[in-house]
Amino acid sequence: MKIYTFPRGGIRFEDPTAPPENAVAAAFLPGLAVIPLVQHIGAGAYPIVSVGDTVKEGMLIGRGQGKGSANIHAAVPGRVVRMVSWRMGPETLVDALVIRMGGAFEKLGRPVKQYSWEDLPPFELQRLIAEFGVVEMEGPGRPVSDMIAALHTQEEPHTLVVRCVFDDPWTAADKVLCQERFQAVLEGGRIAARAARAARTVFAVSQGDEALGKRFLTQAASSAIPVSLAMVGSRYPQRNQRELALALRLYEKRESLELGSLLIMGPATLAAVYDAVRLHKPMLDRYITVGGAAVKRPQVLKVRLGTRLGDVFAECGGLVAGPGRIAAGSPLLGRPAAGLDEPVIKTTTGVCALLDKQLGGGAVRRCIGCGECRTVCPVGLDPEALYKRIGLGGNRAAGRAGECHGCGCCEVVCPSRLPLGSSIIKFARREPDHV
Ligand code: SF4
Ligand code: SF4
User: Fold this and answer.
1) Does residue 219 have its Cβ closer than 6 Å to ligand 2?
2) Where in the sequence is the domain holding 205, given as residue range(s)?
3) Domain ends where: 253, 278, 303?
4) pLDDT value for 152
5) pLDDT of residue 350
6) What is the pTM of this model?
7) Low-confidence stretches of the chain (pLDDT beneath 50)
8) CATH number, domain with residue 173
9) Ligand showing the shortest atom-to-Cα distance for residue 376
10) How far is the CA of 372 from the centre of ligand 2 (A)?
Protein backbone atom coordinates (compact mmCIF):
# COMPACT_ATOMS: atom_id res chain seq x y z
CA MET A 1 0.00 0.00 0.00
CA LYS A 2 1.28 3.46 -0.90
CA ILE A 3 2.56 5.43 2.11
CA TYR A 4 2.14 9.21 2.02
CA THR A 5 4.42 11.40 4.04
CA PHE A 6 5.81 14.91 4.43
CA PRO A 7 8.68 15.60 2.07
CA ARG A 8 11.66 16.39 4.27
CA GLY A 9 13.14 16.20 7.75
CA GLY A 10 11.72 14.45 10.77
CA ILE A 11 13.18 11.84 13.06
CA ARG A 12 12.57 8.32 14.28
CA PHE A 13 11.42 9.00 17.81
CA GLU A 14 12.07 6.18 20.26
CA ASP A 15 11.82 6.35 24.03
CA PRO A 16 12.26 3.28 26.25
CA THR A 17 10.79 5.17 29.20
CA ALA A 18 7.37 5.46 27.52
CA PRO A 19 4.78 2.81 28.51
CA PRO A 20 3.78 -0.29 26.52
CA GLU A 21 1.01 0.30 23.98
CA ASN A 22 -1.09 -2.76 24.70
CA ALA A 23 -3.21 -2.17 27.81
CA VAL A 24 -4.93 0.41 29.97
CA ALA A 25 -5.41 0.35 33.74
CA ALA A 26 -8.14 2.28 35.51
CA ALA A 27 -6.79 4.66 38.12
CA PHE A 28 -8.46 5.09 41.53
CA LEU A 29 -10.97 7.90 41.76
CA PRO A 30 -9.61 11.06 43.36
CA GLY A 31 -10.77 11.71 46.95
CA LEU A 32 -10.25 15.39 46.25
CA ALA A 33 -10.76 16.46 42.63
CA VAL A 34 -9.36 19.77 41.41
CA ILE A 35 -11.42 20.99 38.46
CA PRO A 36 -9.95 24.05 36.69
CA LEU A 37 -12.49 26.30 34.98
CA VAL A 38 -10.04 26.70 32.10
CA GLN A 39 -9.50 23.45 30.22
CA HIS A 40 -9.77 24.99 26.78
CA ILE A 41 -8.21 27.71 24.67
CA GLY A 42 -10.58 30.58 25.50
CA ALA A 43 -11.98 32.36 28.54
CA GLY A 44 -12.58 30.45 31.74
CA ALA A 45 -16.01 28.93 32.28
CA TYR A 46 -18.28 30.87 34.63
CA PRO A 47 -18.79 28.93 37.88
CA ILE A 48 -22.45 28.14 38.57
CA VAL A 49 -21.92 26.38 41.91
CA SER A 50 -20.62 27.78 45.19
CA VAL A 51 -18.52 26.51 48.06
CA GLY A 52 -20.66 24.18 50.18
CA ASP A 53 -22.86 23.04 47.28
CA THR A 54 -23.39 19.34 46.65
CA VAL A 55 -22.70 18.29 43.07
CA LYS A 56 -23.61 15.16 41.15
CA GLU A 57 -21.27 13.25 38.88
CA GLY A 58 -21.39 14.88 35.44
CA MET A 59 -23.28 17.97 36.67
CA LEU A 60 -22.60 21.26 34.90
CA ILE A 61 -20.49 23.37 37.28
CA GLY A 62 -18.99 25.94 34.91
CA ARG A 63 -20.66 27.49 31.88
CA GLY A 64 -18.54 28.26 28.81
CA GLN A 65 -18.37 31.93 27.90
CA GLY A 66 -18.44 32.28 24.14
CA LYS A 67 -15.99 31.29 21.44
CA GLY A 68 -13.02 29.26 22.66
CA SER A 69 -14.65 28.52 25.99
CA ALA A 70 -16.35 25.26 27.00
CA ASN A 71 -18.67 23.89 29.65
CA ILE A 72 -17.08 22.21 32.65
CA HIS A 73 -18.69 19.32 34.54
CA ALA A 74 -18.11 17.69 37.91
CA ALA A 75 -15.86 14.67 37.32
CA VAL A 76 -16.94 13.16 40.67
CA PRO A 77 -19.94 13.59 42.94
CA GLY A 78 -19.40 15.34 46.26
CA ARG A 79 -19.20 18.72 47.88
CA VAL A 80 -17.47 21.84 46.59
CA VAL A 81 -15.04 22.62 49.40
CA ARG A 82 -12.99 25.43 47.88
CA MET A 83 -12.84 27.84 44.98
CA VAL A 84 -9.20 28.68 44.44
CA SER A 85 -6.51 29.93 42.10
CA TRP A 86 -4.62 26.80 41.09
CA ARG A 87 -1.27 26.56 39.41
CA MET A 88 -1.23 24.97 35.94
CA GLY A 89 2.38 25.20 34.86
CA PRO A 90 5.02 27.33 36.53
CA GLU A 91 3.58 30.66 35.43
CA THR A 92 -0.14 30.08 35.04
CA LEU A 93 -2.82 30.46 37.68
CA VAL A 94 -6.42 29.52 36.88
CA ASP A 95 -9.66 29.48 38.84
CA ALA A 96 -10.58 26.00 39.99
CA LEU A 97 -13.21 24.22 42.05
CA VAL A 98 -12.11 21.62 44.57
CA ILE A 99 -14.62 18.79 45.09
CA ARG A 100 -14.40 16.38 48.00
CA MET A 101 -15.75 13.11 46.62
CA GLY A 102 -18.81 11.65 48.30
CA GLY A 103 -22.27 10.27 47.55
CA ALA A 104 -23.55 8.12 44.73
CA PHE A 105 -22.20 8.01 41.19
CA GLU A 106 -24.79 8.75 38.52
CA LYS A 107 -22.84 7.20 35.67
CA LEU A 108 -20.02 4.99 36.91
CA GLY A 109 -21.15 1.36 37.06
CA ARG A 110 -24.74 2.22 35.98
CA PRO A 111 -26.46 0.81 32.87
CA VAL A 112 -25.61 3.07 29.95
CA LYS A 113 -28.55 4.57 28.08
CA GLN A 114 -27.96 5.16 24.38
CA TYR A 115 -29.58 7.97 22.42
CA SER A 116 -30.09 7.78 18.69
CA TRP A 117 -28.59 10.63 16.71
CA GLU A 118 -28.94 9.51 13.10
CA ASP A 119 -32.02 11.66 12.46
CA LEU A 120 -30.75 14.75 14.26
CA PRO A 121 -29.80 17.74 12.09
CA PRO A 122 -26.13 18.85 12.11
CA PHE A 123 -26.80 21.93 14.26
CA GLU A 124 -28.38 19.75 16.97
CA LEU A 125 -25.33 17.46 16.98
CA GLN A 126 -23.15 20.53 17.27
CA ARG A 127 -25.26 21.77 20.19
CA LEU A 128 -24.90 18.46 22.05
CA ILE A 129 -21.14 18.50 21.49
CA ALA A 130 -21.00 21.99 22.99
CA GLU A 131 -23.38 21.19 25.84
CA PHE A 132 -21.23 18.30 27.05
CA GLY A 133 -18.07 20.39 26.91
CA VAL A 134 -16.18 18.51 24.19
CA VAL A 135 -12.87 20.09 23.27
CA GLU A 136 -9.99 18.81 21.19
CA MET A 137 -8.25 16.61 23.72
CA GLU A 138 -4.75 17.84 22.97
CA GLY A 139 -3.01 21.10 22.23
CA PRO A 140 -4.73 24.14 23.68
CA GLY A 141 -8.17 22.50 23.71
CA ARG A 142 -10.23 24.11 20.95
CA PRO A 143 -13.94 23.49 21.49
CA VAL A 144 -15.08 20.98 18.87
CA SER A 145 -18.28 22.93 18.23
CA ASP A 146 -16.12 25.96 17.31
CA MET A 147 -14.05 23.84 14.92
CA ILE A 148 -17.24 22.66 13.24
CA ALA A 149 -18.76 26.15 13.16
CA ALA A 150 -15.66 27.52 11.41
CA LEU A 151 -16.20 25.03 8.58
CA HIS A 152 -19.82 26.01 8.10
CA THR A 153 -18.75 29.47 6.94
CA GLN A 154 -16.69 27.97 4.10
CA GLU A 155 -18.02 27.27 0.66
CA GLU A 156 -15.62 24.53 -0.37
CA PRO A 157 -16.22 20.89 0.54
CA HIS A 158 -14.50 19.59 3.62
CA THR A 159 -13.20 16.30 4.82
CA LEU A 160 -13.09 14.79 8.30
CA VAL A 161 -9.68 13.28 8.91
CA VAL A 162 -9.56 10.65 11.65
CA ARG A 163 -5.96 10.95 12.76
CA CYS A 164 -4.62 7.62 14.00
CA VAL A 165 -0.97 8.51 13.51
CA PHE A 166 1.42 7.03 16.04
CA ASP A 167 4.78 8.59 15.24
CA ASP A 168 5.89 8.88 18.80
CA PRO A 169 5.79 6.42 21.74
CA TRP A 170 4.01 9.08 23.78
CA THR A 171 0.90 8.58 21.65
CA ALA A 172 0.47 5.23 23.46
CA ALA A 173 -2.77 6.39 25.14
CA ASP A 174 -4.36 7.15 21.76
CA LYS A 175 -3.21 3.83 20.35
CA VAL A 176 -4.64 1.89 23.28
CA LEU A 177 -7.86 3.91 23.05
CA CYS A 178 -8.22 2.85 19.42
CA GLN A 179 -8.08 -0.78 20.55
CA GLU A 180 -10.26 -0.47 23.66
CA ARG A 181 -12.88 1.95 22.31
CA PHE A 182 -12.75 1.19 18.61
CA GLN A 183 -16.52 1.46 18.12
CA ALA A 184 -16.70 4.76 20.01
CA VAL A 185 -13.95 6.25 17.83
CA LEU A 186 -15.62 4.96 14.68
CA GLU A 187 -19.08 6.24 15.58
CA GLY A 188 -17.64 9.49 16.95
CA GLY A 189 -16.17 9.96 13.47
CA ARG A 190 -19.57 9.41 11.87
CA ILE A 191 -21.17 11.91 14.21
CA ALA A 192 -18.45 14.53 13.70
CA ALA A 193 -18.64 14.12 9.92
CA ARG A 194 -22.40 14.63 9.96
CA ALA A 195 -22.20 17.59 12.35
CA ALA A 196 -19.57 19.21 10.11
CA ARG A 197 -21.47 18.33 6.90
CA ALA A 198 -18.27 16.72 5.67
CA ALA A 199 -18.32 15.33 2.14
CA ARG A 200 -15.89 12.54 3.00
CA THR A 201 -14.05 10.86 5.88
CA VAL A 202 -10.42 9.84 5.53
CA PHE A 203 -8.86 7.53 8.09
CA ALA A 204 -5.21 8.61 8.26
CA VAL A 205 -3.36 5.70 9.80
CA SER A 206 0.39 5.43 10.25
CA GLN A 207 2.59 2.83 8.64
CA GLY A 208 2.79 -0.24 10.84
CA ASP A 209 -0.87 -0.02 11.87
CA GLU A 210 -2.39 -1.31 8.63
CA ALA A 211 -4.65 -3.75 10.50
CA LEU A 212 -6.26 -0.86 12.38
CA GLY A 213 -6.73 1.05 9.13
CA LYS A 214 -8.38 -1.90 7.40
CA ARG A 215 -10.64 -2.48 10.38
CA PHE A 216 -11.81 1.14 10.20
CA LEU A 217 -12.38 0.89 6.48
CA THR A 218 -14.34 -2.35 6.69
CA GLN A 219 -16.57 -1.26 9.53
CA ALA A 220 -17.20 2.21 8.14
CA ALA A 221 -18.20 0.89 4.73
CA SER A 222 -21.91 1.45 5.41
CA SER A 223 -21.43 5.14 6.32
CA ALA A 224 -23.68 7.67 4.64
CA ILE A 225 -20.69 9.55 3.21
CA PRO A 226 -17.69 8.12 1.33
CA VAL A 227 -14.83 6.84 3.48
CA SER A 228 -11.28 5.98 2.52
CA LEU A 229 -7.99 5.03 4.07
CA ALA A 230 -4.74 6.97 3.67
CA MET A 231 -1.66 5.22 5.03
CA VAL A 232 0.81 7.86 6.17
CA GLY A 233 4.37 7.71 7.45
CA SER A 234 5.36 6.97 11.02
CA ARG A 235 8.30 9.36 11.10
CA TYR A 236 7.91 12.10 13.74
CA PRO A 237 6.25 14.71 13.41
CA GLN A 238 3.88 13.06 10.89
CA ARG A 239 0.86 13.61 13.14
CA ASN A 240 1.37 17.39 13.33
CA GLN A 241 -1.32 19.32 11.54
CA ARG A 242 1.06 20.68 8.90
CA GLU A 243 2.88 17.44 8.12
CA LEU A 244 -0.34 15.44 8.05
CA ALA A 245 -1.93 17.96 5.69
CA LEU A 246 1.12 17.74 3.37
CA ALA A 247 0.82 13.95 3.23
CA LEU A 248 -2.93 14.14 2.61
CA ARG A 249 -2.52 16.59 -0.26
CA LEU A 250 -0.28 14.03 -1.95
CA TYR A 251 -2.92 11.39 -1.31
CA GLU A 252 -5.61 13.70 -2.71
CA LYS A 253 -3.65 14.27 -5.89
CA ARG A 254 -2.79 10.65 -6.49
CA GLU A 255 -6.33 9.44 -5.80
CA SER A 256 -7.90 12.31 -7.82
CA LEU A 257 -10.06 13.41 -4.90
CA GLU A 258 -11.15 16.82 -3.76
CA LEU A 259 -10.68 16.94 -0.01
CA GLY A 260 -11.19 20.68 0.44
CA SER A 261 -10.64 21.92 4.02
CA LEU A 262 -9.48 19.33 6.51
CA LEU A 263 -11.13 18.86 9.88
CA ILE A 264 -8.52 16.77 11.70
CA MET A 265 -9.51 14.98 14.90
CA GLY A 266 -7.72 12.40 17.02
CA PRO A 267 -9.28 9.26 18.50
CA ALA A 268 -9.66 10.69 22.02
CA THR A 269 -11.64 13.66 20.71
CA LEU A 270 -13.87 11.43 18.59
CA ALA A 271 -14.56 9.09 21.53
CA ALA A 272 -15.58 12.18 23.52
CA VAL A 273 -17.90 13.24 20.66
CA TYR A 274 -19.47 9.77 20.81
CA ASP A 275 -19.92 9.99 24.59
CA ALA A 276 -21.58 13.39 24.28
CA VAL A 277 -24.00 12.57 21.47
CA ARG A 278 -24.69 8.85 21.88
CA LEU A 279 -24.53 8.65 25.70
CA HIS A 280 -25.21 12.27 26.72
CA LYS A 281 -22.10 12.00 28.86
CA PRO A 282 -19.77 14.95 29.46
CA MET A 283 -16.00 14.64 29.55
CA LEU A 284 -15.26 13.04 32.92
CA ASP A 285 -12.13 10.99 32.29
CA ARG A 286 -9.48 10.32 29.70
CA TYR A 287 -6.65 7.96 28.75
CA ILE A 288 -3.18 9.32 29.48
CA THR A 289 0.36 8.10 28.79
CA VAL A 290 2.41 8.01 31.99
CA GLY A 291 6.16 7.47 31.86
CA GLY A 292 9.64 8.90 32.10
CA ALA A 293 12.73 7.47 33.78
CA ALA A 294 11.58 8.66 37.22
CA VAL A 295 8.36 6.58 37.06
CA LYS A 296 8.59 3.05 38.47
CA ARG A 297 5.96 1.44 36.23
CA PRO A 298 5.11 3.44 33.11
CA GLN A 299 1.63 2.64 31.81
CA VAL A 300 -1.43 3.94 30.04
CA LEU A 301 -4.04 4.96 32.61
CA LYS A 302 -7.71 5.85 32.44
CA VAL A 303 -7.91 8.78 34.80
CA ARG A 304 -10.74 10.96 36.13
CA LEU A 305 -10.29 14.61 35.30
CA GLY A 306 -9.24 16.48 38.42
CA THR A 307 -6.90 13.71 39.63
CA ARG A 308 -3.59 15.25 40.74
CA LEU A 309 -0.36 14.13 39.15
CA GLY A 310 0.99 12.86 42.49
CA ASP A 311 -1.90 10.36 42.58
CA VAL A 312 -1.27 9.44 38.93
CA PHE A 313 2.35 8.57 39.68
CA ALA A 314 1.27 6.64 42.80
CA GLU A 315 -0.87 4.44 40.48
CA CYS A 316 2.33 3.65 38.59
CA GLY A 317 4.22 2.47 41.67
CA GLY A 318 5.48 5.94 42.55
CA LEU A 319 8.70 7.67 41.58
CA VAL A 320 12.15 6.09 41.80
CA ALA A 321 13.67 9.46 42.70
CA GLY A 322 12.73 13.10 42.84
CA PRO A 323 12.09 14.07 39.22
CA GLY A 324 14.26 16.73 37.61
CA ARG A 325 11.20 17.91 35.74
CA ILE A 326 7.56 16.93 35.31
CA ALA A 327 6.03 17.65 31.93
CA ALA A 328 2.39 17.55 30.92
CA GLY A 329 2.44 15.80 27.53
CA SER A 330 5.55 14.23 26.06
CA PRO A 331 9.19 14.94 26.95
CA LEU A 332 9.62 16.53 23.54
CA LEU A 333 6.58 18.76 23.29
CA GLY A 334 5.11 18.79 26.78
CA ARG A 335 4.93 21.93 28.83
CA PRO A 336 6.44 22.06 32.32
CA ALA A 337 3.87 21.04 34.94
CA ALA A 338 3.42 22.96 38.17
CA GLY A 339 4.27 19.90 40.23
CA LEU A 340 2.54 16.94 41.82
CA ASP A 341 -0.59 18.97 42.64
CA GLU A 342 -1.38 19.88 39.04
CA PRO A 343 -4.56 18.06 38.00
CA VAL A 344 -5.28 16.06 34.87
CA ILE A 345 -7.54 18.10 32.59
CA LYS A 346 -9.24 17.47 29.24
CA THR A 347 -6.07 18.25 27.25
CA THR A 348 -3.59 16.22 29.34
CA THR A 349 -2.44 13.63 26.82
CA GLY A 350 0.24 12.30 29.11
CA VAL A 351 2.59 13.06 31.92
CA CYS A 352 6.26 12.31 32.23
CA ALA A 353 8.59 12.56 35.17
CA LEU A 354 12.14 13.04 33.95
CA LEU A 355 15.33 12.40 35.86
CA ASP A 356 18.11 14.96 35.57
CA LYS A 357 20.08 12.65 33.31
CA GLN A 358 17.05 12.39 30.98
CA LEU A 359 17.03 16.15 30.63
CA GLY A 360 20.25 15.97 28.74
CA GLY A 361 22.21 17.25 31.77
CA GLY A 362 25.75 18.18 30.98
CA ALA A 363 27.10 21.36 29.57
CA VAL A 364 25.84 23.07 26.45
CA ARG A 365 28.73 23.24 24.00
CA ARG A 366 29.49 25.32 20.95
CA CYS A 367 27.96 24.46 17.63
CA ILE A 368 30.24 22.08 15.76
CA GLY A 369 28.59 22.81 12.43
CA CYS A 370 27.40 19.25 11.83
CA GLY A 371 24.22 20.46 10.08
CA GLU A 372 21.99 17.84 11.71
CA CYS A 373 19.47 20.46 12.83
CA ARG A 374 18.99 21.58 9.23
CA THR A 375 18.63 17.99 8.02
CA VAL A 376 15.78 17.15 10.40
CA CYS A 377 13.79 20.40 10.23
CA PRO A 378 10.60 19.51 8.34
CA VAL A 379 10.01 23.18 7.46
CA GLY A 380 13.43 23.62 5.87
CA LEU A 381 14.62 26.21 8.39
CA ASP A 382 18.18 26.73 9.57
CA PRO A 383 17.66 26.32 13.33
CA GLU A 384 21.27 27.07 14.17
CA ALA A 385 21.21 30.41 12.34
CA LEU A 386 17.87 31.37 13.90
CA TYR A 387 19.15 30.46 17.36
CA LYS A 388 22.19 32.67 16.87
CA ARG A 389 20.11 35.61 15.65
CA ILE A 390 17.72 35.28 18.57
CA GLY A 391 20.77 35.35 20.87
CA LEU A 392 21.78 38.67 19.29
CA GLY A 393 18.31 40.01 20.10
CA GLY A 394 15.99 42.68 18.72
CA ASN A 395 14.84 42.88 15.15
CA ARG A 396 17.99 41.14 13.99
CA ALA A 397 16.19 37.98 14.98
CA ALA A 398 13.61 38.69 12.30
CA GLY A 399 13.56 35.93 9.77
CA ARG A 400 11.75 32.66 9.43
CA ALA A 401 11.37 31.89 13.14
CA GLY A 402 7.61 32.39 12.78
CA GLU A 403 7.47 29.42 10.42
CA CYS A 404 8.77 27.08 13.10
CA HIS A 405 5.91 24.88 14.22
CA GLY A 406 7.62 23.63 17.33
CA CYS A 407 8.30 19.98 16.58
CA GLY A 408 11.55 20.02 18.56
CA CYS A 409 13.43 17.75 16.11
CA CYS A 410 16.41 20.13 15.85
CA GLU A 411 16.93 20.16 19.58
CA VAL A 412 16.76 16.37 19.88
CA VAL A 413 19.53 15.79 17.36
CA CYS A 414 21.92 18.58 18.33
CA PRO A 415 25.10 16.94 19.68
CA SER A 416 26.04 20.19 21.39
CA ARG A 417 22.79 20.18 23.36
CA LEU A 418 21.87 23.67 22.21
CA PRO A 419 18.28 24.59 23.13
CA LEU A 420 17.42 25.33 19.50
CA GLY A 421 13.73 24.49 19.20
CA SER A 422 12.74 25.80 22.62
CA SER A 423 14.48 29.15 22.00
CA ILE A 424 12.91 29.58 18.57
CA ILE A 425 9.43 28.64 19.77
CA LYS A 426 9.69 30.91 22.80
CA PHE A 427 10.89 33.79 20.65
CA ALA A 428 8.16 33.34 18.05
CA ARG A 429 5.48 33.32 20.76
CA ARG A 430 6.90 36.31 22.60
CA GLU A 431 7.64 38.52 19.63
CA PRO A 432 5.33 37.47 16.82
CA ASP A 433 5.79 40.85 15.10
CA HIS A 434 9.50 40.32 14.77
CA VAL A 435 9.39 37.03 12.96
S1 SF4 B 1 13.24 24.93 13.79
FE2 SF4 B 1 11.16 24.52 14.53
S3 SF4 B 1 10.21 23.31 12.89
FE4 SF4 B 1 12.42 23.24 12.53
S5 SF4 B 1 13.10 21.37 13.58
FE6 SF4 B 1 13.34 23.06 15.03
S7 SF4 B 1 11.44 23.06 16.24
FE8 SF4 B 1 11.04 21.84 14.35
S1 SF4 C 1 22.84 20.31 15.24
FE2 SF4 C 1 23.76 21.61 16.83
S3 SF4 C 1 25.96 21.39 16.50
FE4 SF4 C 1 24.97 20.61 14.64
S5 SF4 C 1 24.87 22.43 13.24
FE6 SF4 C 1 22.95 22.36 14.39
S7 SF4 C 1 23.33 23.72 16.17
FE8 SF4 C 1 25.32 23.17 15.34
Assistant:
1) no
2) 122-278
3) 278
4) 80
5) 97
6) 0.94
7) 432-435
8) 3.40.50.11540
9) 1
10) 6
